[in-house]
Design brief:
Distance between the termini: 69 Å
Number of helices: 23
Helix content: 55-70%
Strand order of the largest sheet: 6-9-10-3-11-12
Amino acid sequence: MISKLLSHVKDYKKYALLSPVFVVIEVVMDIFIPYLMSLIIDRGIKLQSEAEILRVGSLLIGAVIIALITGILSGYFATKASAGFAKNLRFAIYKRIQEFTFKDIENFSTGSLMTRMTTDVQNIQVAFQMSTRLAIRAPLMMTFSLFMALRINKPLAMNFLIIFPIIGLGIYFIFSNASPIFKIIFRTIDRLNSGVSENLLGIRVVKSFNKMEHESEKFNAISEDIYKYNVKASKLMALSNPLMQFCLYLMSIMIAWFGTKYILDSTLMTGELLSMLTYSFQIQISIMMLSFVLINIIIAKSSTERVLEVLDQEPSMDLNLNGEKNIKNGSIEFTNVLFSYANDEDKCALKGINLSIKEGDRVGIIGPTGSGKTSLVNLIPRLYDTYSGTVRVGGLDVKDYNIKSLRDAVSVVLQKNQLFTGTVLENLRWGDKDASLDEVMKAAKIAQAHDFIMESKDGYDRKVERGGTNFSGGQRQRLCIARALLKDPKILILDDSMSALDTQTENSITNSLSETRPDMTTIIISQRIKSIKDTDYILVMDRGRIVDIGTHEELLLSSEIYREISETQSEKGDFDAKEAQ
């Protein structure tokens, strides 16, 4: 587990190695300083030797300066290494998430993934920084201080050993009880972040249903759980400080008691006693630092497990990065396709799909809600894989293509139109980052977006707020269509992506597509017959199957489902009955 994590230190490894080197030098100087102070007292002041005071004092000043410089350098390198490590780790997590299929992402909630990339990585960063500095400094300081104490007066130094079992048992009790609580805390934080993310994304629904108080109560309940668990963990962690203080005072009393006796017996000098007290304090401080490091390591352990869950999650779909990159044309073929979101043949969303679409065909898809329309088109760019059967594009199984090349050749405008923070131009160039302004404007004109873009004084530099909330639904749809066209795809899939457009605008877009890209295969999913009635042919879907195929006129005569939809929309005024004849 640790080796997997440390592999992400990468180019910051030299800083991670330099920090302990300077820590060792700093510790040696810190150990040397009390010894020099005892020499000044016992050989200089007590014997009134000015030369000895100057000689030892010079060494003392030098040791202090070296300790100061190495302390600063070790802290600098530890900070740089930990910050770089955290940066690499965040990037690795984010990159892995980008490789996930929809199914993989569903295994983790959005809030959980956010927590793992932020809070968990920060916990690991803090623990790593301490491990490259304090975790090395504390044991070295404790070992060297004990060695020097034994060198000065072995019987007195043996009293130091009394505190180690007390501290060891105390720390074991604290950590063994605190670790499970931190795991619960992180899971609860995941729930909190997921709730907040869901609330903010659906804030318009929340307000329209006047559920602000309900959402606040949900948030407060989860927040209260986090508070309770944090208090419980903090109570355990708070025991470490009194434990250390008790051991510190116990050791100080023992040194003072027995040290006085040794001085009276002339087996210990005054300066040596002061050194012993200093070394005892250094041992205590080292133990306190070590306990602080261990606390953060316990927290980081839970965070590490959560981060590695993401990094170790192999994409459920083989991305075939070495696959075929050339998509010959936009023909599509489904052969005996079954598809299940649950990977269960008894719970298939698509059943027995056999379909052949030629390059340049304009195909409409209609059917009741839940009939499998979106599931069908999601298999073309491999947003999901089939349970069984084959989907071919350009005569080749989609699984044999390089996933990036396949998705570059297939543009999908989804039901939920998503724009990103930035400018209109930046959003449109998602389709082609190297597209010129003229190319962007051409795509926008085909999508009937150019005119409303230019209504703003900023034009294509107009700012887009998070999610595109400063644009209407119809404007967002047109911008997303323009973005998809900039990819110059061989296949364009419009998944109910013109539902917010009026008939005239919708017709203008479809006519422009026919004129400018007659070779492009176009699939239009819609709930409205008027949106697809002029396509080359229409697929009627029901309960995961293609039940009818034909032109608008043919289906009015042969398809009961299509005829019912037509009659319903005629009654509601959604469809012109005269045009249906």
